């Protein structure tokens, strides 16, 4: 594994994977608000995926293990199904199968009740019922992963078949009147016997963050027509409007833990894609005082995440949207990487707090049901922090994670976030 510099593609789950080494590049392209990197990327309108990072990966990776893993994923998606919310076996309370539904991950049948309802919460323990065909979370995840793999395979190989299948998946999920998802999450993360939907359900659409980047990568293929591109932008604009006006969306915005951070990250990213740069700028400009100041302590701890049964995992899970927003910041002139609150709170402080536990997870002084699994999710985060701060220590942490994680040999996480 090459020490220090990587180019990579982050999967939604952030599971660790093979990392492609790539050289540093001299001049960083510029993200221009809602047009993203299109001007420097042959019309590819991406916002976090960097032109030079992807170009370096395409040059250096061909034939390597990570490249082969990517092509294998894409070929599986090419031969695989299309996905739609109307395919689920359960009908939402609205009676409209175009409405997305999912179940809260940590809710289980109550053995003390004849029919198990109302369900009871077991923090950190995922009920596999959530991933059955009755609900849409697994289906959305599969769609997003397939679109990502296909768009990147198209970029790496130039083969139109990959772009064509990605466009088919996008039409089916977002555009076709017979199969499209309504741009709302009213019935997301419901709990049987308690509520048909919760504010926490807004988190489910984090899976779509990689979709908007993938759409940009597809641009030169013309697999999507101009009208279809516009239709996708309208869909995400409608969803951004729902996030801001629906009761559960407003409740999620008020969350004081990682849910509030993910809300802001999604809203900013979707607003940029929907050509609403003023909204994105407003969201990102408020992150320092509204999120970082109250959620990160002076010593870098994230107290809301430390109260969970998977405290190390959730500390990184809260850092992920912060890093995402810091990466989006230059698009609208906001610097979150270097933000410091009145007590020194900031993204850097959070990394400094967590870094000593990389490779020494057992020493983390808070409860985590699976501490050995937590740090591997942070590989791309340390990579990006190393670049943002010019910090060799963070680069070394990324190398340590990559070398010590068995899963690093099993799937690709390359990602084009590098400058």
Written description of the protein model:
The protein is mainly alpha-helical and 419 residues long. It has one domain (6-409): Alpha/alpha barrel (Glycosyltransferase). The chain is built from 16 helices and six strands. Residues 1-21 form the signal peptide.
Q: What percent of the residues sit in helical stretches (DSSP H or I)?
A: 40-55%
Query: Can you name the CATH architecture?
Result: Alpha/alpha barrel
Rounded radius of gyration (Å): 20 Å
* Dominant shape: globular
Q: Look at the structure and name the CATH superfamily.
A: Chondroitin AC/alginate lyase
- Beta-strand share of residues: under 5%
Largest sheet: 2 strands, antiparallel
Strand order of the largest sheet: 1-2
Give the tally of β-strands: 6
Order of helices and strands: EEHHEEEHHEHHHHHHHHHHHH
Q: Which class do the helix and strand fractions yield?
A: mainly alpha
Q: How many helical elements?
A: 16
Mean pLDDT across all amino acids: 90
Task: Output the CATH topology.
Answer: Glycosyltransferase
Q: CATH top level?
A: Mainly Alpha
Low-confidence stretches: 1-25, 407-419
Task: Report the span from N to C terminus.
Answer: 20 Å
Total count of domains: 1
SSE layout and pairing:
Layout: E1 6-7, E2 20-21, H1 51-61, H2 65-79, E3 101-103, E4 107-108, E5 120-121, H3 137-157, H4 160-175, E6 187-190, H5 209-217, H6 226-245, H7 247-253, H8 258-273, H9 277-285, H10 287-295, H11 303-306, H12 311-328, H13 347-354, H14 371-374, H15 379-389, H16 392-404
Parallel strand pairs: 3-6
Antiparallel strand pairs: 1-2, 4-5
Helix pairs in contact: 2-3, 2-4, 3-4, 3-5, 4-6, 6-7, 6-8, 8-9, 8-12, 12-13, 15-16
InterPro entries: Alginate_lyase_dom (IPR008397), Chondroitin_lyas (IPR008929)
Pfam families: Alginate_lyase
Keywords: Lyase, Signal
């Amino acid at each position: 594994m090459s020490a220090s510099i990587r180019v990579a593609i982050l999967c939604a789950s952030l599971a660790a994977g093979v990392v492609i080494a790539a050289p540093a590049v001299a001049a960083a392209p510029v993200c221009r608000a809602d047009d993203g990197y299109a001007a420097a990327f042959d019309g590819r309108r991406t916002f976090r995926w960097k032109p030079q990072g992807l170009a370096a990966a395409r040059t250096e990776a061909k034939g390597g293990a990570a490249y082969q893993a990517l092509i294998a994923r894409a070929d599986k998606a090419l031969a695989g199904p299309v996905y739609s919310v109307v395919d689920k076996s359960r009908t939402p309370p609205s009676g409209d199968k175009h409405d997305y539904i999912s179940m809260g991950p940590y809710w289980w049948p109550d053995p003390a009740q004849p029919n198990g309802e109302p369900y009871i919460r077991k923090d950190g323990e995922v009920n596999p019922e959530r991933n059955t065909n009755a609900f849409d979370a697994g289906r959305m995840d599969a769609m997003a992963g397939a679109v990502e793999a296909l768009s990147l395979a198209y970029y790496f190989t130039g083969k139109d078949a990959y772009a064509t299948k990605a466009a088919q998946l996008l039409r089916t999920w977002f555009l076709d009147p017979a199969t499209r998802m309504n741009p709302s999450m009213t019935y997301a993360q419901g709990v049987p016997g308690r509520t048909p939907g919760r504010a926490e359900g807004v988190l489910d659409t984090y899976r779509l963050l990689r979709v908007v980047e993938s759409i940009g990568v597809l641009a030169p293929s013309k697999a999507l027509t101009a009208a279809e591109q516009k239709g996708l932008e309208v869909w995400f604009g409608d969803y951004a409007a729902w996030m801001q006006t629906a009761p559960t969306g407003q409740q999620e915005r008020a969350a004081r833990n990682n849910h509030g951070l993910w809300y802001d990250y999604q809203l900013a990213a979707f607003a940029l894609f929907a050509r609403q740069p003023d909204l994105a700028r407003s969201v990102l400009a408020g992150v320092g005082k509204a999120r970082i100041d109250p959620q990160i302590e002076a010593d870098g701890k994230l107290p809301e995440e430390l109260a969970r049964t998977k405290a190390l995992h959730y500390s990184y899970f809260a850092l992920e949207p912060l890093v995402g927003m810091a990466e989006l910041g230059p698009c609208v002139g906001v610097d979150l990487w270097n933000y410091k609150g009145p007590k020194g709170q900031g993204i850097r402080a959070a990394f400094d707090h967590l870094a000593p536990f990389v490779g020494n997870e057992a020493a983390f002084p808070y409860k985590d049901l699976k501490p050995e699994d937590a740090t591997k999710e942070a590989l791309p985060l340390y990579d990006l922090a190393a670049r943002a701060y010019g910090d060799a220590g963070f680069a070394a942490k990324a190398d340590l994670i990559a070398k010590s994680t068995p899963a690093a040999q099993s799937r690709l996480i390359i990602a084009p976030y590098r400058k």
